[in-house]
């Protein structure tokens, strides 16, 4: 819970800072910052039509469907405590079929310092997704180090259903992270190893 408190405190600070930034940015660079005088009429706020697109207005004013909120909560609560990271890392397409790539990092049940890394190919769009395939990248669990981050590269136009990930891995006996790369092609063996460039 201490991490949550720090995150909430940091978020509150950022929100407060950003809310004052607009007023400071509008002030004359050389003059004092002034507040509106009670005798001066306040500027009329922008109308919702001018300020936001119609979809944003609807989403903001429509109350959440309790049944959908309950399903979303159940999905979040259904995640195993061993699941440490889940990310959507990019789109894929194969002819008329398309979807997204998802990665899942799961902590080992027998060793707190060991992790299993999975690449999933999800088919569909929006909330209508299904798991098409799941593959474990076993080599990640065999590296003597810690994954400190990873990022996806854009798929190539020649192979729009491929996935390339770059991993920053801190060796257990080192201070500088090393980069590894994963090249994943559906239906073919993946390649994983130290980055070549």
TrEMBL record:
Low complexity bias spans: 63-73
Keywords recorded for this protein, A-Z: Signal
Highest taxon of the lineage:
Bacteria
Q: Where is this region: Disordered?
A: 29-73
Endpoints of the signal sequence: 1-25
Q: What is this protein called?
A: DNA topoisomerase IV subunit B
Tell me the organism. Aurantimonas marianensis
Q: What is the lineage of its organism?
A: Bacteria, Pseudomonadati, Pseudomonadota, Alphaproteobacteria, Hyphomicrobiales
């Amino acid at each position: 819970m201490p991490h949550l408190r720090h995150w909430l405190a940091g978020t509150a600070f950022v929100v407060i800072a950003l809310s004052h930034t607009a007023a400071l940015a509008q002030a004359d660079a050389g003059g004092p910052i002034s507040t509106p005088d009670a005798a001066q009429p306040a500027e009329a706020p922008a109308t919702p039509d001018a300020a936001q697109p119609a979809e944003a207005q609807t989403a903001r004013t429509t109350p959440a469907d309790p049944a959908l909120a309950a399903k979303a909560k159940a999905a979040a609560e259904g995640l195993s405590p061993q699941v440490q990271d889940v990310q959507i890392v990019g789109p894929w397409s194969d002819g008329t079929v398309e979807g997204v790539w998802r990665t899942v990092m799961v902590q080992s049940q027998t060793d707190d310092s060991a992790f299993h890394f999975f690449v999933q190919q999800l088919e569909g769009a929006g909330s209508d997704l299904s798991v098409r395939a799941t593959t474990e990248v076993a080599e990640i669990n065999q590296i003597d180090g810690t994954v400190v981050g990873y990022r996806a590269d854009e798929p190539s136009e020649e192979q729009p259903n491929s996935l390339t990930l770059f991993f920053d891995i801190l060796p257990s006996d080192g201070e500088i992270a090393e980069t590894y790369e994963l090249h994943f092609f559906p239906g073919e063996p993946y390649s994983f190893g130290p980055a070549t460039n």
